[in-house]
Amino acid sequence: MYPNCPSITRTIELGGLSKHQLLQRLRERAIFINEYGEMLITDEKFTTSETKYCIETVEISVGSLGFPNGANTAEIFERAKVLGLYLCPLELGPYLRLEYIEQPEGNTGTSSQQNQAPRGAITVATETLYDDDDFPKGLYLRRINGDLWLRGYIADDLHIWNHNDHFVFCLTK
């Protein structure tokens, strides 16, 4: 269990770009965004910092948080908090995608099971903007057939994440 488990730490620089500039930078780098990702980033509640700053992150599996049989989002986030991890600012998703270009391939040639995180996805642990189950809850990173993606996702409070699903948390507030 964390911190005595496999994990990946990264230092990511955020801020200094408007939402428009951030979307432009993603397009310039040939990073694809799904409809839910666009919906989330273009929402008025999605904000970006005018000032640059750095965040230390850790990527770990749901199982490494002590959930060998998986858990829902609230359980995952509560356990992370107990372990000294913090939710990330929503703007981390696009910046992390811009930085993390060596993500391993997530497509195994078989279709993903519906209502589960795709194989190889890394979900950014963030607060949700709205309680509406039809509005994207957050962002995840994925590489599919060599293409980098920043994707939004929809999940309700009952969704159970698998033990091998990966999340990114912040090491400091």
Features of the shown structure:
single chain, 173 residues, alpha+beta, seven-stranded mixed sheet, globular, helicase activity, hydrolase
Q: Return Rg in Å.
A: 15 Å
Mean pLDDT: 95
The structural domain count equals 1
In DSSP terms, counting alpha (H) and pi (I) runs of 4 or more, how many helices?
A: 4
Summarize the main sheet. 7 strands, mixed
Class per helix and strand makeup: alpha+beta
Q: How much strand content do the residues show?
A: 25-35%
Written account of the structure:
The chain is an alpha+beta fold and 173 residues long. The protein has one domain. It contains 4 helices and 9 strands, in the order βαβαββααβββββ. It has a 7-stranded mixed beta sheet. A two-stranded antiparallel sheet has the order 4-8. Helix 1 packs parallel to helix 4. The longest helix is centred in the N-terminal third of the chain and has 10 residues. The protein is globular and about 40 Å long. The mean pLDDT is 95.
Could you outline the blueprint of secondary structure elements for this entry?
Elements: E1 8-14, H1 19-28, E2 32-33, H2 35-42, E3 53-61, E4 71-72, H3 73-82, H4 92-99, E5 122-124, E6 138-144, E7 147-153, E8 160-161, E9 166-170
Parallel strand pairs: 2-7, 5-9
Antiparallel strand pairs: 1-3, 3-9, 4-8, 5-6, 6-7
